[in-house]
Amino acid sequence: MRHTLPRLLYLPCSRSRIASPTQISSLIHHANKASTCPAHGSNCTSCSSSSTSPSSYTSQLNLVSGLRKMSSLGVGNRGDKEYAFEVSASNLRFGDGVTREVGMDLVNMGAKKVGVFTDATVARLEPMKVVIASLEENGIDYEVFDRCRVEPTDASWEEAIAWSRERDCSHFLAVGGGSVIDTTKAANLFSVYRDSPLLDFINAPVGKGLPVTRPLRPLIAIPTTAGTGSETTGAAIVDIPSLRFKTGIASRALRPTLGIVDSRNTKSCPRSVNMSAGLDVLFHALESYTAIPYDQRSPRPQNPIDRPAYQGRNPISDVFSLWALKTTVEMLPRVLQDEDDAEARKQMLLAATFAGVGFGTAGVHLCHAASYPISSHNKLGPQYTQKGGYEGLGAPIIPHGISVALSAPSVFAFTAPSSPDRHQEILDIFGSFSRNGASPTSSSVADGSLGARVRESVVEFLDSLGGMPRGLEGVGYGVGDLDALVEGMLPQKRVVNLAPNIAQQETEERRDQLKGILTDSLRW
């Protein structure tokens, strides 16, 4: 079943409402009746092992979260809260076989020399053959860089940047998954900023996070996986092994000029690649749909050029994220069950693009923040390699979508109290396509148990796919690794700060919240 675009569902009109004494009393009363830890669900052990009982812990956390929410609705001064959001995305072309048009596009753009970026695997596959044929048929001067690394590092970026600076390409063309497209974005950026080091534009606090003020060169992105949505966004992610976490560059200036989304290009993907890519789509959609509202983000930029790419959820991102969520929950299992299901592959590719538009404006939060150290630490720690298509890469790898999913059940148990209506909607969406076809309706799940039920539904969906490691222990992590993983999450402020219910400063409270989520993610 295809989904039509939903109406805008969330247009809050209560921003100026002041909390009354009755509301505050009601909140305290509700907190005192709560019994489920929102960070860990109904099986919480860390709370019960402390001197504070789970019920007391939950009451305190719900009370603090509720008062925090009331403050955002008008208690006190809004100070420097944001008041606007900005939507931008690449031009997109979607169709069966549209890759062959890329040579004509480059002629139309007046390309003089094109740098074509791909990886060693895609370089041998049909999508790249179609691209090269189109370039040659249209008389395009080009050179190929086929050393993009899956899960790129700062070293692999530097190699691609040096190659680009030597050739001074007028246009860029990326053919591959998110790793290739992100590498091409970096090569484009640093071809214009020829004397700038990488850390000038890496997100703060890891780098300087400088704004991109010069026009970059035209970039066409042709994705070969239904996953990252990188063809639509201004984000590029890189692993810095010396720091043991991933970070990136986020600027609207990095957005591709054109994304060519061709459903034929995902036919060659192995099942494990389809699963990882599809999980990335799923959690792009879920995280952007549950991020804080854009007008709760602070500080508000003093100049529009400083408004971040990731701004918090808004009515437009909701449309794209919700459609992508519904489509992925329905279509990803079909793709994994039957690689010849052309309609499911097409819908998943479209969902990846929709999710890219959604999170490219709203942002992601805790699942992605956790994935960055989970992936990076693995290279020197557990050295896990996902089977079924990743063994030949020459290095341990937890594929990005897998690393994002490992913490997801616990993350959405934690975020559920922030917006019960949205999380109940999520519960219903998973229930609509569950194996037994049964799920409690929104009205039948009390807020106190909602987080635990959402956790159960996410776990059930992940288990149903087959081949998904069941938590951090499934990829080799243990209790002794958690502090290091927390340290890798803390610098990811641009995404952690978009999480609802999270302490808004880098305090012991935030550190404890992140460790609680990771502790609960050790096993499902």
Structure write-up:
The chain has helices at residues 21-33, 54-72, 102-108, 126-137, 154-167, 178-192, 271-290, 315-337, 342-362, 366-378, 400-405, 408-415, 420-432, 447-465, 482-489, 493-496, 508-520; strands spanning 91-95, 114-117, 142-145, 171-176, 219-223, 235-240, 245-250, 258-262. Residues 1-64, 66-77 and 438-442 have low confidence and may be disordered. Strand 4 (171-176), helix 6 and strand 5 form a beta-alpha-beta unit. With 524 residues, the chain is α/β, with parallel strands linked by helices. Among the domains are: 23-72, no CATH class; 91-266, Rossmann fold, CATH 3.40.50.1970. The radius of gyration is 22 Å and the shape is globular. The two termini are 31 Å apart.
Radius of gyration: 22 Å
Strand arrangement in the largest pleated sheet: 1-8-5-4-2-3
Supply the helix-strand structural class.
alpha/beta
Beta content: 5-15%
- Major sheet summary line: 6 strands, parallel
What is the share of helical residues?
40-55%
End-to-end distance: 31 Å
Low-confidence stretches: 1-64, 66-77, 438-442
The CATH topology of one domain is what? Rossmann fold
The chain-level mean pLDDT equals 87
Number of helices: 17
Give a short overview.
The chain has 17 helices and eight strands. It is α/β, with parallel strands linked by helices and 524 residues long. 52% of the residues are buried.
Topology:
Elements: H1 21-33, H2 54-72, E1 91-95, H3 102-108, E2 114-117, H4 126-137, E3 142-145, H5 154-167, E4 171-176, H6 178-192, E5 219-223, E6 235-240, E7 245-250, E8 258-262, H7 271-290, H8 315-337, H9 342-362, H10 366-378, H11 400-405, H12 408-415, H13 420-432, H14 447-465, H15 482-489, H16 493-496, H17 508-520
Parallel strand pairs: 1-8, 2-3, 2-4, 4-5, 5-8
Antiparallel strand pairs: 6-7
Helix pairs in contact: 1-2, 3-4, 5-6, 7-8, 7-9, 8-9, 10-15, 12-14, 13-14, 15-17
